[in-house]
Amino acid sequence: MARRCPREPSRNRPPTLPVRGSGLNRRLRHRLPPLPLRRNVAHPRHPGNTSHHHLLERVGMPSAGCPTPPARRRPRGRRRRDPFPPDAVAQQRLPREDFMTVSTVRRSALVLFFLVLAAASVWWMQPAFLGLPGGAAETARPARPAGQALPVEVARAARERVADQVDAIGTLAANEQVNIAPEVAGRIVAFHFREGQRVEAGAKLVELDATIANAELRQAEANLSLAQDVFDRSQTLVQRGAGTQVALEQATAQLAVARANVAAAESKLRQLTLTAPFSGVVGLRSISVGNIVPAGQAITTLTQLDPIKLDFSIPELFIGAATAGQTVDVRVDAFPDQRYRGEVYAIDPVIDAAGRALRLRATIANADGALRPGLFARVSLTTAVREDAVVIPEAALVASASGRDLAVYVVRDGRAVMTTVTAGRRFDGKVEVTRGVAAGDMVVIAGQIRLRDGAAVNVIDAPRPPAAEPPASAGPTASVRPERRP
Hints:
single chain; alpha+beta; 4 domains; 4-stranded antiparallel sheet; 22 strands; about 30% strand; elongated; transmembrane helix; YknX-like_C
């Protein structure tokens, strides 16, 4: 029976069977055998519609003897892009090693070689940089015969006076300071001082116009004289029985008022003359004679410089160590070669919540007036003193075998014995030792790098035994700082 060819689909209704075209080939692409792909060779995705007639026959599509129906037209517009272009599929099927070129491999190999060479050089030279045995430093060092003593320098542990001090920053302030200002308004008629002059307490400084005040005083004195006469007559009349008691009482009251008016006039007159309330140095003035000043306006200042105050703060951690009567060592940048000593006399009862600090106030003798209020000061507060502390040179400290503690080499019977120590305060190239070393022990201060625990040593320039120690009170005070722990 002859196979009938499908009719050409009408444009008015959709076709009942799929037509031959690129869309059918895409639906049948997964049934096609894979084609070998090579780099830089263009291969067609499929050979065409006529090379797979046997596949079309399997799915019931006509092939031979039938005219090829016209392909359906796609609606005009942007063409649909193939999600899997031939180039992308070909690249996905390429082996991974083909993407790396020979130049990239060579560069990677060279970079890796130089990195390994640099790491080996650093490892080889590290002992020489750190001064430790091993590596190139150990190879370059000539071998020392077994049993030969190593030359070292030693120092003897001694007892010294060590003071615990807390470092702080403070500001100098005047012991007393006041503004010279009138209590009443008036016109300046005279100055009785020179700017910067030292004056004593009670000295006359400024004089205001007292013309009106003197007139008011004379008027008050006249009223007082009249009131006194009225009182005397009233009292005489009462004694004779000619006067009344009421008149006497009125005269008594008028006399008291007159006396009060005189006292007020005298006080106002005294207010027109400004005097120094205490001894000190007069400051600068910006008002001249003839100016009218209101009540309360400052004309100049009076400052007392001896003694001078020092205000400073310490962390709240040392609140238990701060007490009144402790000494402070003070330095100012204006006089770097001078050292001043003061004494704490007041401690603020309240901790500053913003800075978590305790405010202290001390006084410093300032007879020559060199220190001025407002100067920046570096303060060292002495909190504790140890008269017989064991002190060694700071150069004697080395790391222990574990690397976590400090140690020193103590020379005993010609051998260096590593001893773990506990360090205290450090000052002037010295360190206080609270455990591990006793006074009189000889510790190695040079040549420790080549030493091992128990190694034989040859002491060079051994110090002589110390003479009789002076009294502890006569020893110097070591100014030290508290160690900051992380």
